[in-house]
Amino acid sequence: xxxxxxxxxxxxxxxxxxxxxxxxxxxxxxxxxxxxxxxxxxxxxxxxxxxxxxxxxxxxxxxxxxxxxxxxxxxxxxxxxxxxxxxxxxxxxxxxxxxxxxxxxxxxxxxxxxxxxxxxxxxxxxxxxxxxxxxxxxxxxxxxxxxxxxxxxxxxxxxxxxxxxxxxxxxxxxxxxxxxxxxxxxxxxxxxxxxxxxxxxxxxxxxxxxxxxxxxxxxxxxxxxxxxxxxxxxxxxxxx
Length: 240
Fold this sequence. Notes:
By secondary structure, the protein is mostly helical. The chain has 2 domains: 2-79, Winged helix-like DNA-binding domain superfamily/Winged helix DNA-binding domain (Arc Repressor Mutant, subunit A); 86-239, GntR ligand-binding domain-like (Four Helix Bundle (Hemerythrin (Met), subunit A)), CATH 1.20.120.530. Helices cover 76% and strands 3% of the residues. The longest helix is centred in the C-terminal third of the chain and has 30 residues, at 210-239. It starts with a helix and ends with a helix. 20% of the residues are buried.
C-alpha cells in the first residue's frame, strides 16, 4: 500500500511539474534565446523532486516545446536543425540524395546572394577564391576552403532557415567515406574547372545577376556530380 502511494505521488508531481513548466515556457516566449532555469534551480523554484522535473522536461522535449543542448542549457521551441545528429542523418542518406538536395538549394542561395550580399561579403568571397587557388595540393585544404566559399554564399543569401538547411547538408558531407570519394574524384584538370566555376558564380553575385548566379552554381554542381558518379562507377568496376 505504501509503495502504491509513493508511485501515485510521483506521477502527480510529474503532472504538476509539466503544468508549472508550461506556465514558465509561456513567460519565456518573448525571449527564446535565453535558457530556462537549470534542473537544480527548477527543483528549488517549484519545490518538487528532480525526477519529476526530468520526466516533465522529457515530455515537453518530445512535444517540441523545448530543446536541450549539453553545456548550453534548455531553450523553448523545437530542436533547431543544427542540433540534429548529423551522423544519424549521414547514415540515412546517400550520395545521390545529397547532390539532389544541393542542386535544389545552392542555386537558390546563389541567386539570393546576388540580390543581398554586402560589399564586405563579396570581398570575403574574393579572398576565399584566392585561398582556394593557392591551396590545390592538399586535400584537407581543398575541402576547407571549398566549404568556406559555399558557406559564405549561403550566409550572403540572408535567410537564416536556408542557412540552417545548408549547414545540415554541409555537415553530412564531412563523413569520412564521402570525403574520400571526393578526393578520388579530383584531378588537376577538374580542380581548374571548379576554380573557373567558382569564379563565375562570384562574378555573377558581384554583378547582381541572380539568374546568372543560380545557373553558374547549378552548372558547377552538375560537373561535380558527374565526376563523383564516374568515380563511383570506376570503384564498382574495380571491385568486380
